[in-house]
Amino acid sequence: MKFSEFKLDSRIMQGIDAIGYENPTPVQEGAIPQIISGSDLIACAQTGTGKTAAYVLPLLHGIVTEKNRTDTIKALVLAPTRELAVQIDQQLEGFSYFVGVSSIAVYGGGSGVDFEVEKKAIKTGAEILVATPGRLISHINSGYVDFSHLRYLILDEADRMLDMGFQPDIMKIISYLPKKRQTLLFSATMPGDIRAFTKKILHNPNEISLAVSKPAENVLQAAYRVYDNQKIALVKKLIAGKDLPSVLIFSATKSSVKDLEKELQRQKLDIKAIHSDLEQDQRKEVLRQFKNREVQILVATDIVSRGIDIDNISLIINYNVPQDAEDYVHRVGRTARADKTGMAITFINDRETWNFTKIEKLIGSEIRKLPLPEGIGKAPSKDRGRPDKSRFKGGGPKGKGGFKRTPKRK
Ligand code: AMP
Fold first, then answer.
1. Ligand 1, atom 15: nearest CA belongs to which residue?
2. How many domains does the chain have?
3. 51 alpha carbon – ligand 1 mean position (Å)
4. Does the pLDDT of residue 36 top 90, yes or no?
5. Which of 28-37, 257-266, 337-346, 374-383 has the highest mean pLDDT?
6. How far is the CA of 49 from the centre of ligand 1 (A)?
7. How far apart are CA 134 and CA 118, in angstroms?
8. 382: how many CB neighbours lie within 10 A of its CB?
9. Which CATH number belongs to the domain containing residue 356 in this structure?
10. What is the extent of the structural domain holding 276?
11. Contact 139, 106 (CB under 8 A)
12. Per residue in 67-110, pLDDT tens?
């Protein structure tokens, strides 16, 4: 696709040329025509995808093609941090070089002089305001912000703003805006609280998603809260006597891999391990056996796991919560290929709750926490270390057998 296909104002095309963009990015291809058409939009896209230009370009187009253009605030971009606000304002300045649309970034932390500069720009009619919510409220409270001509509201990095507790400020700001407006929401993730929030402030939005891939739809995901010293017993309970042709266990440390190997071999389970103490040839041989289903259970360290390319695993056990939320998605993607159903079970110790919350945020749903089976002992307290329980309110798991089914991939 070419930028020329969007039929943007020729002066904006000059700006795109001057900045040196050749072709639109996928989020731009998806968002620009929809924004020009006037509909509300939810875009699930991360920083680095070109999301800023995806709304800045149609915004500028809308402003410069407006009849009877006046010096009033026409667009408000809300951003979580001063750094992002500055970055957005810089892109705006770059693109509007040939069209002369005025903008100002309004953010906290500056001096009283900065506040006065912002105040003057707001009063004399900057056409686009890029603001952090708290600072904008200070200006609104002073009584000179006129939003009566506003046509666009953009929420950038909405998930981060909600994480930072800005929801009440945003709702307050919105109460000052005209009801008839176009609202665009950009977010890297779409957890339940963002969904609920979008329902409050967007009107029949279109939706585009460029999020990281979600685990396959037929993977059953669950987790146990467990102390480290209960984990081996729990693995045994989960595997022994079950019809699981292929089980892959990921663990963070070499020593826990070795302990597990020893312990499960003692239980007469069919298990092999790979870790960095093995020679390359030995690792290859173990992998070959596991792939060919000559060995039922493979235990591997995190580092080694990145290079493992095996599909169709019946059960994945994350012996620790993966440090990197995307690693979780990739691992879980190893199960349930084709029409098979797989399971992914994660052990969460009392220090890993926060990391696990990040995973749930990334995949956009809460993963069911199961009670420990009999004989394992008492689980760690549910709430310890959980920073924000309210993120998932109302979204209880409903999957078969106590597991949560991930939503169908669109
Ligand atoms: P963003 O996701 O908006 O933070 O953009 C990430 C980076 O991609 C920024 O440095 C943009 O200048 C750049 N960028 C955005 N759109 C394009 C494009 N169509 N072609 C080349 N670079 C782009």
1. 50
2. 2
3. 7
4. yes
5. 28-37
6. 6
7. 14
8. 10
9. 3.40.50.300
10. 219-370
11. yes
12. 888 889 999 999 988 888 988 998 999 998 899 899 999 997 76
